[in-house]
Amino acid sequence: MKKCREDVRILLIGDRNVGKTSLILSLVSEEFPIDVAARAEEITIPGDLTPEKVPTCIVDYSSIEQTDKHLEAELERADVVCVVYAVDDDDTLDSVTEHWLPLLRVTLGEDHKKPVILVGNKVDMIDYSTMEAVMPIMNDFEEIETCVECSARNLKNISEMFYFAQKAVLHPSAPLWNYQEKDLTDPCKKALSYIFKICDMDNDGVMSDTELARFQRKCFNMDLETGTLDSLKTVVQKNSSDGILNDGLSLQGFITLNSLFIQRGRHETTWTILRKFGFADNLTLDPEVLIPPVLPVPGSTAELTSAGTDFLLQMFSKFDKDKDQALSPQELVNLFSTCPSMPWGPQVYHQSITTERGWIGLPGYVALWHLTALTSPEKCCQLLAYLGYDYHSPSTPLTYPTFTKSLVSMSIDYFFSGMQHIHVLKDKKSDVAKRQTSKSVYSCLVVGPRDAGKTTFCQRFLGKKEDDVLSIPPSDLPSCTVNTVTVYGQQKHLVLIDTDVTCAQDSLSPQQTGSDVICLVYDSSNPRSFEYCARIYLRYFATTQLPVLVVGNKSDKGVVRQDYILQPEAFCAKHKLPPPQKMSTISSQSKEIFVKLATMAAFPRFQAAWMLFYRGRHLKQLGLGGEDSAYIKFTLGLAIIALGGVFAFRYFSAR
Fold first, then answer.
1. Under a CB-based contact definition with an 8 Å cutoff, are residues 375 and 511 in contact?
2. What is the dihedral of CA 321, 325, 329, 332, to 10 degrees?
3. Number of CB atoms found within 10 A of residue 401's CB
4. 116-121 and 80-86: which strand pairing?
5. d(Cα 207, Cα 249) in Å, to the nearest integer?
């Protein structure tokens, strides 16, 4: 919920002898002062003594003791200005419109939004009201929130006057109500429409009794009393013919209801709703108020928790109106209708797998969200906030040491507070030390020279052929693709990041160093292609523990000898890398390569075992055996035993 103000500063101005100082002293001492100074000292009322539980500072102005510069400074500092006049002196009321209100506009600007309270003092001196004369003034000056008639002598409406001043700051009416048109402002209607869409859980265009009860609990922390709901519907139906549809509250009814709140002076009710959903005083939505951004430290990565995934699945079901397990372009627009703009452009249809109709199905939808969380966790937090994650999810505070059972689990060295929603994992050094990773989403940095076929390689991950890739407009080609892979019977997500790396760069970016596996792609039919990959490996990855796989692309176009001191096979053997993998643009064997990449990412310390495995298989194909073969089999056996130990450890730890 939007954080409340820390304090409220009230300034009293007006002509001499209208009773400004007496009003302040009567409030503090609860009796009318006999001897009144020219100006009261600035006082602060503690928050626990105010209706809104907010500390309130009251400032008096005296033209005798203070200059015009002092007045200008106080006007700038004040949160609300009380313009006081004497109800028994018409000249002081004329001075309100001829001097004081114009002075505010000159000092603060013609379109200033600082609230003003008109205060008619000394009602004990007359037996009539000045409200009829005040109404035209309120119509001419929109900054006036309300008018209060009071008496410092008999303490009439003194506390109410300061309450209205405080309320004008905490629950201003100007952003909500257009007094000239006598209707809600357009920003207010837009904000209420946003709230209605989030609270309409089943997306049927009305808020049912169940949804209204949930809304009541979320916003006001209380249940609807018996009969209240029926009374509410009756009031809405009376004021809006289409406010109730199918025994539920429509959007028009929701707007009408809040309009009635404001007309009856209950601004705080609407503001409570707005602030619960993260709206500021200017009715702009700050997503970070609802969900603090997750900013992983360099070397760590972020991914969605099961709770975050469940929420997104709920959103998918909500907007999949035809229940075909896919989101049409219009359904996708509807899903993101609560966001400032459409975050997914044409590229998403080439970032993950789609249905036969080219729409985003459920697997592709989930994969795209995992991609967003991995590559841009801050953006993912914002989107979840706009979609209403804070409203739909439990608000259990997150504390140590029970964070692994809460909405988010994070590395122990990552400080956080409040409810989060994305799983921030430890850096790769910890995973490498354990010889395994607890991730469910792996990142693969795809590096290679131009024309090596990196784009085609990444699109093959989605099952697309070369002709399909050539038909994609260049502007729609993404730099990342994501799909599911199976690693030892477990479904994981692998993200391929197509990156251009040059030897002139000083270092890799945090995103690149955080990759789980490196894929060096070269063109098998180009004799000068592998040299690029070799130099990139020696420059960046030779001294790291990142697993690396070399892929010889376009093998169907012919495999030629590379113009480099070592051929790819010899280079990989020298640096203890798995042998180069051959990939064809027409072969169906590419899936194995992506599984290998994911497996290497899952078990980063077993790259040597991978190398020995491929080396042993290669020697067997050449008819070689003997001691080398026995040694390889022995080493491979140890690696398999180690792998078995890892899975056993994870199994019993889970138990």
1. yes
2. 70
3. 7
4. parallel
5. 5
What backbone phi and psi angles, to 5 degrees, belong to 486?
-105, 120
Tokens of 189: 């209607």
Tokens 């002076």, located at residue: 265
The DSSP element (H or E) to which 8 belongs, if any, is: strand 8-14
pLDDT confidence of residue 410: 30
Peptide bond into 401 cis (omega under 30): yes
Over the stretch 342-363, which tens digit does the pLDDT of each residue have? Answer: 999 999 999 999 999 999 999 9
CATH code for 295-338+359-426? Answer: 1.10.238.10
Q: Which ranges of 30-144 does DSSP label H, i.e. alpha helix?
A: 68-77, 90-95, 101-108, 131-140
Q: Measured between alpha carbons, how far is 285 from 315 in angstroms, rounded to an integer?
A: 20
What is the model's pLDDT at position 467?
Answer: 84
* Residue bearing tokens 């959103």: 315
Give residue 581's Cα distance to chain centre: 41
* Amino acid at position 81, single letter: V
Pairing, β 43-45 against β 56-60: antiparallel
Mean pLDDT of the chain: 85
Beta strand spans in 507-569 (E): 517-523, 548-553
Q: What is the DSSP letter of 475?
A: G
Spatial distance between the Cα atoms of 278 and 73, rounded to a whole number of angstroms: 31
d(CA 616, CA 632): 6
Interior/surface letters 337-350, b for 16+ CB within 10 angstroms, e for the rest: ebbeeeebeeebbb
Please give the angle made by the CA atoms of 11, 15 and 17, to the nearest 5 degrees.
Answer: 100
Measured in whole angstroms, how far is the alpha carbon of residue 624 from the centre of its chain?
A: 59
Q: Please tell me if the domain spanning 183-285 has the same topology as the one spanning 295-338+359-426.
A: yes
Label the pairing between strands 301-304 and 422-425: antiparallel
Q: pLDDT grade, residue 310 (50/70/90)?
A: very high
Question: What's the CA angle centered on 174, arms 169 and 175, to 5 degrees?
Answer: 95
Selection from 92, 85, 146 nearest residue 115 by Cα? 146
Q: Report how far Cα 368 is from the mean position of its chain's Cα atoms.
A: 16
CATH topology of domain 8-170: Rossmann fold (3.40.50)
CA distance readout (Å), 92 to 30, 59, 86, 142, 160:
26, 20, 6, 20, 22
Angle separating helix axes 251-263 and 186-199, nearest 10 degrees: 130
Under CATH, domain 441-605 is a member of which superfamily? Answer: P-loop containing nucleotide triphosphate hydrolases (3.40.50.300)
What contacts 322, CB < 8 A, 6 or more positions away? 328
Tokens of 36: 């009144």
Report the alpha-carbon distance of residue 568 to residue 529 in Å, rounded.
11
Pick from 91-105, 187-201, 630-644: least confident: 630-644
pLDDT in tens, 273-297: 999 999 998 999 989 888 888 776 7
Q: What are phi and psi of 643, to 5 degrees?
A: -60, -45
Identify whether the C-beta of residue 352 lies closer than 8 Å to the C-beta of residue 364: yes
For residue 132, which phi and psi values (nearest 5 degrees)?
A: -65, -35
Q: Which of 426-430, 466-470, 535-539 ranks highest by mean pLDDT?
A: 535-539
The residues spanned by each domain of the chain are: 8-170, 183-285, 295-338+359-426, 441-605
302 phi, psi to nearest 5 deg: -125, 145
The encoded tokens of residue 201 equal 């859980």
Beta-sheet strands, E only, within 243-316: 244-245, 248-250, 301-304
Query: How many residues in the chain?
Result: 655
Domain 183-285 -> CATH class: mainly alpha
